[in-house]
Design goal:
alpha/beta, 5-stranded parallel β-sheet, 45% helix, globular, binds 6-O-phosphono-alpha-D-glucopyranose, cytoplasm, aminotransferase
Length: 367
């Protein structure tokens, strides 16, 4: 068993540390740097065909749903096409206004999630073209989609999804660039591709510093509630971080869009409710800073993920984790890694069954 885990204690730990390789394998066939080109042979689209797409829907469950939310930000910002995201279990019952002029993107690690498959069938029934993003070859989802793009994360055994998520984000990033190109919104693609190719090494740098995160576990392992804050494209990353903590450490964690803090969760903040804040450089930075002030004023314990040169945060937060720089889209992947590590080390500290958390299944094939 130890051999299967490649010397790691848990599959989840192994899978977190495999991410540089998983992402390299996933993007490999899609980037042709010599010709400054993106390649999506499995999803051929002409400019004309793309222009006809009125709206893109992305539907999924669990962690794949969080990837979908990030995908919305990426596609809308880069390709300027409206994107609607839905939970598969909601979509299938709400008579969604989807039709043959729209594209339905369905994301699933396993390709077998019952609600996700039902949503796919609902979309097809309503005439939408369908694209699957999936990690398991030969599973049901790719068989039923018009087109499929695979993530090449390799088998994911740990119930809490890690490398499947970051490889989904990598595909959504490349897909956004592809759409942007087709829509005539992107002239210079090379830097975006180079950023992608640099990413695996940047993840390695974060992983090499894993002890920084590990040492937080004994300090915070006895808390009963956590608040995760993010804004914009980092809000779904906060959701994913909170989900990881809930799934495997059984600590209640809630993610909030930081601007909404004043409409409720601020009432909960005191020295017993640690706050994890995602504070990338960029347009929301000053806003996050003021959210952080509000946490500090209320004696909240603050764990901040930020970038070098953001020294205001360093002075204010109880703990600071530094993330390497990239473009705002790809930084979502980099910010995810310490959140996965944090959930993992918290669960190890609490002695839970990390790979097989109670009441959860790797893929939910019943409704
Ligand atoms: C289960 C798993 C999650 C996963 C979700 C969706 O809840 O425990 O890790 O994100 O199903 O699975 P899928 O295979 O469709 O991505």
């Amino acid at each position: 068993v130890m051999a299967e885990k490649g010397g790691y204690k848990h599959f989840m730990q192994k899978e977190i540390f495999e991410q540089p390789r998983a992402i390299t394998d996933t993007v490999r066939g899609h980037i042709d740097l010599d010709r400054d080109k993106l390649v999506f042979e499995e999803f051929p689209l002409t400019k004309k065909a793309f222009k006809k797409i009125e709206k893109i829907w992305i539907v999924a469950c669990g962690t794949s749903y969080h990837a979908s939310l990030v995908g919305k930000y990426m596609i809308e910002k880069m390709a300027l096409v409206p994107v609607e995201v839905d939970l598969a279990s909601e979509f299938r019952y709400r008579e969604p206004l989807i039709n043959q002029k729209m594209l339905l993107v369905v994301i699933s690690q396993s390709g077998e999630t019952a609600d996700t498959l039902a949503a796919l069938r609902e979309g097809k029934k309503r005439g939408a073209k369908t694209l699957g993003i999936c990690n398991v070859l030969g599973s049901t989802l790719p068989r039923e989609c018009d087109y499929v793009i695979y993530t090449h994360a390799g088998p994911e055994i740990g119930v809490a999804s890690t490398k499947a998520f970051t490889t989904q984000l990598a595909i959504l990033y490349l897909l956004s660039l592809y759409f942007a190109k087709l829509n005539g919104k992107l002239t210079e693609i090379r830097t975006f591709l180079e950023d992608m190719l640099r990413l695996p090494h940047q993840i390695e740098i974060i992983l090499k510093g894993a002890e920084v995160v590990e040492k937080l576990a004994p300090q915070y392992g006895n808390a009963h509630n956590f608040l995760y804050l993010g804004r914009g494209i980092y809000y779904p990353i906060a959701m994913e971080g909170a989900l990881k903590l809930k799934e495997i450490s059984y600590i209640h964690a809630e993610a909030y869009a930081a601007g909404e803090m004043k409409h409720g969760p601020i009432a909960l903040i005191d020295e017993n409710m640690p706050v994890v804040a995602l504070v990338p450089k960029g347009e929301t930075y000053p806003k996050m800073l003021s959210n952080i002030e509000e946490v500090i004023c209320r004696q909240g314990k603050l764990i901040a993920l930020t970038e070098k040169n953001c020294k205001e945060i360093g002075e204010k937060a109880n703990e600071v984790i530094y993330i390497p720089s990239s473009n705002p889209f790809l930084k979502t992947i980099l910010f995810t890694i310490p959140l996965q590590l944090f959930a993992y080390y918290m669960a190890v500290f609490k002695g839970t069954d990390v790979d097989q958390p109670r009441n959860l299944a790797k893929s939910v094939t019943v409704e």
